[in-house]
Amino acid sequence: MKAFAIPALALLWLEGGALKTSGAAQGVPSVTRSSHSPEITIHSSSDLVLVDVIALEARNTLPDKKLRRDDFQVFDDGHAVSIQTFDRGTATRPLALWFVVQCSMPGYEKEGSGFFRGQIALFEPALKNLDKQDTVAVAHWCDDGQSKLDLLPTTNVEDAAASLEQVLAPTFNPDDHDRPGELALEKTLQLIVDATRPLVPERLPVVVFLYGDHSGMPRSEADHLIDALLETSATAYGLKDRRSPGIWFLPGEQKEVAHYIATQTGGQYFEVTPQTYATGLEEILQQLHFRYELGFKPEALDGKRHKLTVKLADAAKKQHQGVRLRYRLAYVPVRQSSSSF
Predict the structure, then answer these.
(1) What is the pLDDT of residues 19-48, one digit of tens each?
(2) 126 with 281: CB under 8 angstroms?
(3) Are 293 and 323 in contact (CB under 8 A)?
(4) CA distance 95 to 113
């Protein structure tokens, strides 16, 4: 991946608009398995599209927790669909919280995840707010083509923090910052999906980038990545240190790719300082723990991108004035075994 191209992800990953199907995990590289890691087994579920919806109050951006099934309307390519399942808060799937970082590279500390190196302990107060069934995990990739799951889902927050610091400690100086990094990113995302899918109970993969996002990628490549995620259950969030530089314009390319992924998959990007690292993560977890989960059955598994729209019914709009809904903007109905990564 070129000097701008997606250098650092820390993935928190949310399943919205994703098709639930039975599926077995693919082969994955060597990983560190904590003694607290849940046993991985294969399970099945019905062919439903699950749309995870965050409802935020206008006056304080806190989650609105009082909405009901009849308050929502869901549209698939503009056509109203029947909401067959409805869950909220603690009734939704537990989280599989993946922290993914790019390896440290000399000269790219501000652009990548270098600001988070040696600072992972600052996130620990927020991680204590995880629910009992939530898990944390660690993965990384590098512009030299490395792609690895470093820690499989575990309830041990300390193991995850230690693993992140171990990944960020060494430095690498790859010769090529272009295609090898892009392919490594795609492979890392696929490995995360494959490792999360068979967990019981079924979990919600949530992607949080710990990353300055001084990145760029050809728009066609970025859209291919988005389409692949929409076939699965990924939604991205991000945390960017305010000291990281921004990008104004990249001719012919999609700038700030991690932000783009977050927007397209229903997540959000936050700017933070070391003093607010934990606050930013706490806000993400609060949104996820008080989300709504709407399920509907697609007409066909056609492998095409479908536009998703979620609205409040007129009566709900009057009762919950100013509430903003955030959700993934599309989904691709395929069986998980046919993922296009």
Answers:
(1) 443 233 333 344 444 444 433 222 224 578
(2) yes
(3) no
(4) 23
User: pLDDT, tens digit, for every residue of 98-147?
Assistant: 998 988 888 888 988 899 999 999 999 999 889 999 999 999 988 888 99
- Say which residue the tokens 């995870």 belong to: 52
Give me the number of domains the chain comprises.
Answer: 1
Residue 109 lies in a domain: yes
Which CATH number do you get for residue 239? 3.40.50.410
**Per-residue confidence (pLDDT) for residue 336, from 0 to 100:** 55
Is residue 276 classed as helix, strand or coil in its secondary structure?
helix
Q: What is the amino acid identity at position 261?
A: I
d(CA 226, CA 233): 11
Number of C-beta neighbours around residue 12 at 10 A: 31
User: Amino acid letter at 266?
Assistant: G
Q: What is the DSSP string of 37-65?
A: PPPB------SEEEEEEEEE-TTT-PBP-
Name the pairing type of β-strands 95-102 and 204-210.
parallel
Question: Which token pair is 165?
Answer: 């610091």
| pLDDT for 7 | 37
Q: Taking the model in full, what pTM does it have?
A: 0.83
Quick count: other Cβ atoms within 10 Å of Cβ 65? 12
Does 6 map to a domain? Answer: no
Residue 173 within a domain: yes
b (16+ CB within 10 A) / e for 319-328: ebeebebbbb
Residue type at 307 in one-letter notation:
K
**Cβ neighbours of residue 65 closer than 8 Å, sequence gap 6 or more:** 88, 89, 290
Which tokens in the block code for residue 91? 């009734």
In a domain, 55, yes or no: yes
Range of 190's domain?
18-338
CA distance 88 to 293: 6
Cβ distance 11 to 213 under 8 Å? no
What values do phi and psi take at 308, rounded to 5? -105, 135
Q: Give the residue ranges of DSSP H helices in 231-337.
A: 257-264, 277-289, 314-319
